Amino acid sequence: MIHEVDEVLKRLLNSGALAGSGIDVSFDAPTREWAARRNAPAINTYLYDIREDVRRRERGAMAVRDERGVVLRRRQPPRWFRLSYLVTAWTKQPQDEHRLLSAVLATLLPHEVLPPEQLPGALGALGLSVPLTVAGLHTESRSLAEIWSALGGELKPSLDLVVTAPFPAFPEYDAGPPVTEGAGVRVRGMDGTLEGSPERHHRARHLSGPPAPSGSPADEERPITDRPDGENPGRPGGKYPGRHGAERAAG
Predict the structure, then answer these.
(1) Where is the composition biased (Basic and acidic residues) (predicted)?
(2) Are 156 and 116 in contact (CB under 8 A)?
(3) How far apart are CA 143 and CA 164, in angstroms?
(4) DSSP 3-state assignment of 35?
(5) Are 201 and 185 in contact (CB under 8 A)?
(6) How many structural domains comprise the chain?
(7) Which of 106, 161, 173, 187 could make a disulfide contact with 85, Cβ separation 3.0–4.6 Å?
(8) DSSP per position, 89-108
(9) What is the DSSP pairing of strand 42-52 with strand 24-26?
(10) Contact 22, 14 (CB under 8 A)
(11) What is the DSSP letter of 69?
(12) 25 within domain boundaries
């Protein structure tokens, strides 16, 4: 993912106000040794910080659908990372460096959001837009002076470029076929064979449907309970000595 962001930045910096200039775009650390080897004007885009943007973290699973809207696969949402670049211009004259930085600003400012069709490889396959900010408020824990001190060089005018890119950290997995019917219940006898009619086997398939008619095989599954009139269709003769039945017999 990081190398694909580098590719996007190099393509952008070679276009716009810098198109046809032949300025070299380097991603090396701008150390004293690198500066001593340089023999032509260059723009250095040094990646100095990588950290997750936890405000964009999402939970759950995302559905991957086909052209008909059917869910084929599922995947975990990507994690977003802030890639911070230190952009500097290198020439023999400070005024020329300032002109190059101005051209970099003019080139990058129109691209606040990079659409998926402008992103290469796996980065573009995610179908997500990538935000880009340049010369914004420095929010990283290390100051630019500390960065230059760690590089062993002198402080130079620079632009802070931040690309917040998604990282597909989790693979996709196939989704099961869509559910077309409800749950079913089948009852087997002691000998292992299915009992009753198909309506009885799938009685639980349509819970919102009308109740089974009286005298149907489904009545055999109803529990024996007391009725106020003492009737019990589950026993031979239709009577049993329940609480109400016993009171009626005593009366």
Answers:
(1) 219-232
(2) no
(3) 19
(4) helix
(5) yes
(6) 1
(7) 161
(8) EE-SSHHHHHHHHHHHHHHH
(9) parallel
(10) no
(11) -
(12) yes
Two tokens, residue 134: 């340049």
Q: Is residue 98 part of a domain?
A: yes
Evaluate whether 75 touches 32 at the Cβ level (below 8 Å). no
Can you tell me the mean pLDDT for 37-45?
90
- Helix (H) or strand (E) run with residue 9 in it: helix 2-13
Count of positions (residues) in the chain: 251
Which structural domain, as residue segments, surrounds residue 58? 2-174
Ranges 113-117, 182-186, 216-220: which has the least confidence: 216-220
In a domain, 190, yes or no: no
- 125: tokens are 């396959």
Partner residues linked to 130 by β-bridges = 114
Question: Any idea what the Cα angle at residue 116 is, between residues 133 and 109, rounded to 5°?
Answer: 25
d(CA 176, CA 74): 10
Q: Is the pTM of this model over 0.70?
A: no
For 72-110, write each residue's pLDDT tens digit. Answer: 667 677 889 999 999 999 998 999 999 999 999 999 999
Q: Each residue of 135-186: pLDDT tens digit? A: 877 666 667 778 888 888 778 888 999 999 998 766 665 666 666 777 777 7
User: 124: number of CA atoms within 13 Å, CB side?
Assistant: 11
Q: Which two tokens stand for residue 190?
A: 């002691």
